[in-house]
């Protein structure tokens, strides 16, 4: 019997597919990865331009001028603080639940006050940022030039999957950032807040298959 033995045939189709989609524009993703009905409308739409408040906006030098998280890379002005900018649909990425990713930002403070910084992800997609969704926070002293800092962010396995979630990156001159500031019920002093989009997917296993094909007689 003629035997054709195919051993250790590796099927990495799913892992390759997801790897390609993480690097590709997100509009190329299929409904097997993201919920297309919610792709461009994260629940956490508010607070936005009209509800996030900052006492001072302009060339005050209290800024978050660079954000890098997985495939997101965003540069903004190092001197001009804007109370709110929404990059949720233009700057987004895919991360895997249970994995850890570096978050790198560049902060700058003015001559009179320190710059405080905090980042939240609306992991449960309930439209607000809870304190247990704060993923990093720090501060730099007054009169600091652009200063780059990094933190490792672990993605919880309990987060909402395959749906566009909102990551809020905020800086504030003078005062620590409160949960009320992040959610629009309190006022930043010199605020600089930016939102980005995050999709979280489940891990994709490597599939290893052994195939044996037999034909004919011995």
Task: Describe the protein.
With 218 residues, the chain is mainly β. It has one domain: Coagulation Factor XIII, Chain A, domain 1 (Distorted Sandwich). Helices cover 7% and strands 47% of the residues. It has 2 helices and 15 strands. It has helices at 13-23, 179-182, and strands at 2-11, 53-54, 58-59, 63-69, 72-75, 80-81, 85-96, 100-108, 115-121, 134-140, 147-154, 165-173, 187-188, 190-201, 207-215. The strands form 5 sheets. Strands 7-14-12-9-10 form a 5-stranded mixed beta sheet. Strand 4 (63-69) and strand 5 form a beta hairpin. It is globular. Residues 1-33, 35-39 and 209-213 have low confidence and may be disordered.
* CATH architecture name: Distorted Sandwich
Average pLDDT for all residues: 79
| Structural class by sheet pairing and helices | mainly beta
Total count of strands: 15
Helix and strand run = EHEEEEEEEEEEEHEEE
Q: Which segments are poorly predicted (pLDDT under 50) over 5 or more consecutive residues?
A: 1-33, 35-39, 209-213
CATH topology title: Coagulation Factor XIII, Chain A, domain 1
Q: What Rg, in angstroms, do the CA atoms define?
A: 22 Å
What global shape is seen?
Answer: globular
Strand content: over 45%
How many alpha or pi helices?
A: 2
């Amino acid at each position: 019997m003629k035997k054709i033995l195919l051993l250790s045939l590796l099927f990495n189709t799913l892992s390759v597919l997801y790897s390609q989609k993480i690097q590709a524009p997100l509009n190329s993703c299929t409904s097997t990865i993201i919920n297309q009905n919610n792709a461009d409308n994260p629940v956490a739409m508010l607070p936005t331009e009209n509800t996030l408040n900052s006492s001072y906006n302009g060339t005050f030098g209290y800024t978050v001028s660079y954000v890098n998280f997985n495939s997101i890379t965003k540069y903004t002005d190092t001197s001009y603080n804007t109370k709110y900018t929404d990059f949720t649909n233009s700057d987004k990425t895919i991360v895997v639940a249970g994995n850890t990713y570096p978050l790198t930002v560049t902060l700058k403070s003015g001559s009179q006050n320190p710059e405080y910084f905090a980042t939240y992800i609306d992991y449960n997609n309930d439209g607000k940022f809870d304190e247990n969704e704060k993923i990093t926070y720090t501060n730099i002293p007054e009169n600091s030039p652009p200063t780059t800092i990094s933190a490792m962010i672990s993605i919880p396995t309990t987060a909402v999957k395959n749906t566009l979630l909102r990551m809020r990156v905020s800086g504030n001159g003078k005062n620590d950032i409160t949960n009320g500031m992040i959610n629009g019920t309190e006022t930043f002093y010199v605020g600089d807040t930016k939102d980005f989009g995050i999709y979280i997917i489940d891990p994709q296993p490597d599939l290893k298959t052994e195939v044996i094909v037999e034909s004919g007689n011995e």
